[in-house]
Every structure is written in C-alpha cells, then in structure tokens.
Design a protein that fits this description.
By secondary structure, the chain is an alpha+beta fold. Helix content is 26%, strand content 28%.
Length: 372
C-alpha cells in the first residue's frame, strides 16, 4: 500500500490536517507517538483563547476569519460544542504593543470592537484592578475553544472519512525515495507519496538536517478557586490578555466550574519535549499569586495546575513551509503559544497545498526563508 499523505503527529494541527486531507479523497496515514488528545504536548488544559483583532500581525486576520468559519462548520458536522464566545478584553497601557497592534488589526479588517477606559472596564467587569490610565480593546467575537474535544472531533471525522490513524506508534526515521518517502516505526515500514510533519515540540528532532530555529519551553497553567459571589463567572467575565511589560502578557478565562484559569504568555524555561513533567514549583505559584494580587486585588486558593509546551520561533510567528530539498514534505509548526485557534484554517490550507503542490498565498509570510 502506498499512502497519498502521511501525517506525523495527530495533535491540533495533525488531527485537522488528517480530516481535511481525507475530505479531499486522499488516502491518509496518521501516526502519533501517544494517543491524542494527551497531556504530553502543547494542546491540553481544557481551553484555548480564540480572538481576531490580532496584535501579533494583521496578516493573521484573514486566517482567523477562515478559522472561525471552519470551527463553526466542524460544530455543525459533529453536533459538538467546540467554541464558546465570551467576548475578549485586550488590556494595557495606551502605547502598549497589545493595544496598538489589536487596534491596527481591528481597524484594518473591520473587526467588531470598541475601546474601554479603566473606569468602564471596572464597571463592566468588577474583577479587574488595573491602573487608572490603562485601556482595553473589547472584541465581541473573541472566546474560547475546548482543545481536547476539538482534536477528538477532528480525529473521529478523519477516521470516518477513511484516514487510518495509528496511535502509540512514533515515527523513528524517514527517508526520501524516487516515489516519495519511506517511514519507519517499531511496527514496520510505510510508503507515502507526501509527508506532513505536525509533530509539535518534537518537530525539530525529526528534521535535524534543517536545524530549525525552534526553542521548546515549559508553560504552566493555573486554576484558582473563585469566591461567592463570583466575579470570574462566565456571566460577568470574558477571556482576556493583559500586557504588563514588553512581551509580557497575562491571560485568562472565565470560570466555567473548574475555577479561574490564568497563565503567563511568556516563553518559560527551555526543555527537551521528553523531559516534560506536570510538577510545578512553589516559586511559580507564588509568582502567579503576585499577579493575581496586582491585577485583581485578590488572594485565591490554588485548585489545580498543568504544564504544557510552547515551540517558539525567534520572531514569535509560525513556521509553515515545504522542506527546501523535498517539496512534497510539508512542515507545520504553528505554536509560539498562539497556534491552536488556527488549526481549523491551517489544516484546510495545508491540505489544499499538498493537493495543488503550491504554498497558499495566505501562508507565505510564515516561510522558513525568513530565518535564512
Ligand atoms: C500553555 C499553553 C497555552 C496556550 N494557549 C493558547 C491559546 O489560548 N490560544 C491559542 O490559539 N493557542 C494557544 N497555545 C498554542 C497552541 O496550543 C499550540 O500552538 C498548538 O496546540 C500546537 O499544536 P501542534 O499540533 O503543533 O502540537 P501538539 O498538539 O502537541 O501535537 C503534536 C503531536 O505530535 C506527536 N508526535 C511527536 N513526535 C512524534 C513522532 N516521532 N511520531 C509521531 N507523532 C509524534 C505528539 O505526540 C503530539 O500528539 C497554547 C499553548 C500552550 C502550551
């Protein structure tokens, strides 16, 4: 059997790609090191933010529009609830990158938004205690995705559409041949005409010849017990990002029953992906408690933590490209801590690219060339 496309890694990007490739009638083989969704990569922890007034770069906004459409389409096809719109606040000093960048994206792409003063933030969302000269961009369509459910749903639908998915079967080696690629696992060899690496934190080690400029870091998520009455409840609290220094962001989610989830969007300590453990140090908890005091004026009891990995590029933008020596091998590394929301759009676009042998124009700004 010669597969049309082999997808290496079935997390956020690989599950979506397997689905869209199978939808196009291709024979798809998917391999994963573990059984996704799992807690050993980048896609666990109950929720991921989705937002559109993208401070990182306006070029992401067309991808986000497609991502929203595709998540909603996936909900209809699967009858699952995957996306919850809560509204979103981008909070910071008026000259912060978060405020300036979100506003630029919103204005350029006509995104439904409005600006709030610190007093207006406090009146609408009493949980926040922010400096009186800060402001926020409120984005109405922002919200959250349920990552484990999203991955499960894409994998189910990919299998229903004919993809063959092998879990607990890591790719050990690959080589290019005249016909395509030969893949080796502990269970045997497979042949495939095309290959897409969606291997998250492991992607660099599977493509050593490219010495990809990726740094894998450890990221901690915290859930805190909320008081009664609850100012963090879904009815009175949105998803938020808050900038408190250059490239320093705190973000969080409304309490849906599991507590107030909050984390730092700052690359943590570097590690090798196989070294990830779920243990959290006392000083990391104390640091987060300090931010809670500073921006919410409160002390809350810790309920739970989780540890996840970012795969960071030097400029914080994704890396999506074809292998310079093997044009039928695609590299899909959209992380740097903000990739999940894009999985539905990127899976579709990369599937389209694999069929047409062309890099979709929307993805050209994410090429490997920019680092060379
Ligand atoms: C703490 C945290 C918070 C985040 N918050 C947000 C957010 O709010 N919004 C947002 O949009 N994004 C967010 N992100 C980023 C987002 O979650 C990631 O960009 C996305 O999950 C990456 O998906 P992936 O498919 O690349 O990796 P993963 O989902 O980790 O998938 C990679 C898969 O490859 C498999 N694999 C590895 N090696 C092999 C091999 N040799 N053979 C076979 N399979 C292999 C792994 O087992 C894994 O299942 C966050 C990330 C973290 C860590």
């Amino acid at each position: 059997m010669i597969w049309d496309v082999a997808v290496i890694g079935l997390g956020a990007m690989g599950s979506a790609s397997s689905y869209y490739l199978a939808q196009k009638g291709l024979k798809v083989l998917g391999l994963d090191r573990f059984t996704p969704p799992h807690i050993r990569g980048s896609s666990h922890g109950q929720t991921r933010i989705i937002r559109e007034a993208y401070f990182e770069h306006p070029a992401y906004v067309p991808l986000l529009k497609r991502a929203y459409d595709n998540w909603q389409d996936l909900e209809k096809k699967s009858h699952e609830s995957l996306l919850l719109k809560t509204g979103g606040l981008m909070i910071g000093a008026p000259q912060s990158e978060l405020i300036l960048g979100s506003r630029q994206s919103a204005e350029k792409h006509g995104i439904d938004h409005h600006m709030l003063t610190a007093a207006e933030i406090k009146a609408a969302y009493p949980a926040f205690e922010i400096p009186s000269d800060w402001i926020a961009l409120k984005e109405n369509r922002a919200g959250l995705l349920y990552p484990e459910k999203c991955i499960e749903t894409y994998l189910d639908l990919a299998q229903n559409a004919g993809s063959e998915l092998h879990t607990n079967e890591p790719l050990l080696n690959w080589k290019a041949t005249n016909q395509g690629f030969v893949l080796e696992t502990e269970l045997g060899q497979y042949q495939s005409k095309k290959l897409v690496f969606c291997s998250g934190a492991w992607i660099g080690s599977l493509l050593p010849e490219l010495t990809l400029p990726l740094k894998v870091t450890r990221q901690v998520l915290f859930w805190f017990k909320t008081p009664t009455p609850n100012p963090f409840a879904l009815s009175s609290f949105p998803i938020f990002l808050l900038e408190f220094g250059k490239d320093k962001h705190l973000y969080g989610f409304p309490d849906q029953g599991a507590g107030f989830k909050v984390a730092l969007h700052i690359p943590g300590h570097a590690l090798k992906p196989d070294q990830l453990t779920q243990s959290v140090e006392k000083n990391e908890i104390l640091e987060m408690e300090t931010y809670l005091k500073q921006f919410f004026g409160t002390t809350l009891k810790l309920k739970e933590t989780a540890v996840c990995m970012y795969t960071n590029t030097p400029d914080g933008h994704f890396l999506i490209d074809r292998h310079p020596q093997h044009p039928n091998l695609w590299i899909m590394s959209p992380c740097s801590g903000h990739g999940f929301k894009f999985a539905s759009a990127l899976g579709e676009l990369v599937a389209q690219g694999l069929v047409t042998n062309q890099m979709p124009s929307e993805l050209k700004f994410l090429s490997l060339q920019r680092f060379q």
